[in-house]
């Protein structure tokens, strides 16, 4: 991917090494989009599912949801779920990512309930504390705008039970995602997001992923989530509101190049705009499998895009710590920087 950084080979190597060495946080990572490619192909073959129709070298927004459709068929048991999460955590730990928030909506597999899904995630995250002690991993429960309301209400009730009632440290918030062409954020406020906020549950919302969704973007900004995701297609007034409201933004460079049908990162305008207005931006992967990326790469691409010096990069990453949803870990990471 072509970047904007015009340093010498030695400067590029040094900066890439810095992007590896520097502690990182990942706040926008969908479990279903982060399978190892080998695991994805192995499971698809095992289930007899063809993936010949998928173009892994040119993943558009439509292509991303084609892949998620296959993932929904192959990620079909609690054992597979736990294996996938272990592999994801291991892969992130190898990039010196210190804190990771995964995202997923609970699913029922056979005789297993959606609560069994949540319990399985909690179990494997607890296990990962021993397997990979240098990374802390938490879960955001997904509210999927493409799913039936009844399913999302059940997901919310489970999130509330584990966050508010049981105070489970592994579940730290809600996130709103799914096909941006389906339904609207406002449809979920009365029964999910308003009561969630009243209960003290933190919320991240995919925002302005596609063009001409300004009415929805306005409603999202009126709600003022704890974090926003993407913000690709905002107008000047919307960017100003993000800055005024001081809402941190999860930015996903490789993902945006694909879903916005761009050729290079230099064509991305929303991230430089957010940065120039003083917004907190957090580099994230979104989906490592879909976009062939990792946290080192996303950090390096941010350096290239914004032409950052070392201290500027450290400042951006340190500001991002305040946006994580686990307050205890936030305090710990802040004390270490």
From TrEMBL:
Catalysed reactions, as listed in the record: N(6)-methyl-AMP + H2O + H(+) = IMP + methylamine
Pfam families in the record: A_deaminase
GO biological process, one term: adenosine catabolic process
Gene3D superfamilies recorded: Metal-dependent hydrolases (3.20.20.140)
Pathway as given in its UniProt record: Purine metabolism; purine nucleoside salvage
GO molecular function: adenosine deaminase activity; metal ion binding
Cross-referenced InterPro entries: A_deaminase_dom, Ado/ade_deaminase, Metal_Hydrolase
Keywords from the named record: Hydrolase, Metal-binding, Nucleotide metabolism, Purine salvage, Zinc
Family under the similarity heading: Belongs to the metallo-dependent hydrolases superfamily. Adenosine and AMP deaminases family.
Listed name of the protein: Adenosine deaminase domain-containing protein
Organism: Euplotes crassus
């Amino acid at each position: 991917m072509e970047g904007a950084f015009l340093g010498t080979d030695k400067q590029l190597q040094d900066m890439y090494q810095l992007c590896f060495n520097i502690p990182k946080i990942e706040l926008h990572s969908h479990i279903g989009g982060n399978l190892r490619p080998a695991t994805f192909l192995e499971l698809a073959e095992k289930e007899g599912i063809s993936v010949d129709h998928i173009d892994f070298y040119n993943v558009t927004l439509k292509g991303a949801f084609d892949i998620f459709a296959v993932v929904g068929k192959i990620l079909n048991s609690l054992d597979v779920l736990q294996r996938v999460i272990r592999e994801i955590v291991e892969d992130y730990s190898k990039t010196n990512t210190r804190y990771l928030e995964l995202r997923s909506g609970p699913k029922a597999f056979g005789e297993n309930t959606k609560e069994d899904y949540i319990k399985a995630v909690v179990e494997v995250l607890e296990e990962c504390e021993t397997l990979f002690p240098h990374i802390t991993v938490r879960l955001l429960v997904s509210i999927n705008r493409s799913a039936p309301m009844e399913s999302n209400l059940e997901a919310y009730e489970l999130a509330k039970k584990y966050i508010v009632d049981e105070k489970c440290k592994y579940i730290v918030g809600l996130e709103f995602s799914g096909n941006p062409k389906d339904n609207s954020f406002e449809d979920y406020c009365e029964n999910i997001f308003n009561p969630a906020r009243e209960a003290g549950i933190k919320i991240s919302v995919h925002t302005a992923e596609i063009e001409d969704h300004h009415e929805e973007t306005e409603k999202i900004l009126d709600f003022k989530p704890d974090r926003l995701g993407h913000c690709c297609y905002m107008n000047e007034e919307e960017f100003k509101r993000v800055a005024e409201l001081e809402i941190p933004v999860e930015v996903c460079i490789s993902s945006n190049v694909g879903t916005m049908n761009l050729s290079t990162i230099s064509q991305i305008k929303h991230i430089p705009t957010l940065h120039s207005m003083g917004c907190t931006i957090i580099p994230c992967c979104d989906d490592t499998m879909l976009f062939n990326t990792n946290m080192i790469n996303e950090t390096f691409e941010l350096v290239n895009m914004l032409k950052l010096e070392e201290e500027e990069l450290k400042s951006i990453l340190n500001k991002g710590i305040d946006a994580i949803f686990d307050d205890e870990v936030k305090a710990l990471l802040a004390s270490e920087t």
